[in-house]
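Handout for the seminar on molecular recognition.
Each group receives one record of this type.
Step one: identify the two inputs.
Step two: read the structure output and locate the region that could contact 2-phosphoglycolic acid.
Step three: write two sentences on what you found, then compare them with the reference statements printed after the record.
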Amino acid sequence: MKLIIVNDLKAVGLRGAELVAEEIRKNQNLVLGLATGGTMIPFYKSLVNLFRKKNLSFLKVRSFNLDEYVGLNGKDKRSFRYFMDKNFFSKVDISKRNIHFLDGNAKNLYTECKNYENEIGELGGIDLQILGIGKDGHIGFNEPGSDFNSRTREVLLRETTRRNNAKFFSGKEEKVPKKALTMGIATIMSARKIILLASGKSKSDAIAGALNGEISEKAPASVLMRHRDVAFIIDKNAAAKLRK
Ligand code: PGA
């Protein structure tokens, strides 16, 4: 495990983007797993900047996003698909047909999840997965208690998660969907390389739990300690509770 501690959220995003750029330069066909959330906004800004400076192309990159709310379609402003279109896909040269997304409005959610796993497999698996972390230690929408063997599936969201994400629903927690589709813990762990980004005091317990606590399904991110190529890029505040 590699731990990189930087000053603030902006620096987390910049360092994360630089590492992604390095991987794309080594392999322009990279299969890239992507994440959403407030932490990711400066990260996508930095990636867009690299693209605009003509330092980086996403033309052949294939992407798979981690998760999506159940019941929202991709045009809904609160969906993760919309977040990605707005903050990243519409601003770079990624090819539309190379973007893979879970459809939270699919008729059969079980089949939707199975097909997603198959698509990842058909492209040879995820080369690099980007992750955020929840205050409760979740990765993707794998809440505490998620089976380490879980694959892409429908899940129930916890209250803490819905409260955190209310910022994307005019501050109204009751408007945040109760269910989501998410890649599973085992899906995430199958990625060849993983980079987790975190910022702020509110994430310090989750970070300490992942890095210093026991590896347990109670702390989903702790499973990452079993991965052989994982980097945590976090700011000082998120690192505040780490054992010295
Ligand atoms: P956040 O979400 O960046 O909005 O805090 C992170 C997450 O829940 O994974």
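Reference statements: The chain has one domain: 2-235. Residues 37-39, 132-134, 164 surround 2-phosphoglycolic acid (CB under 6 Å).
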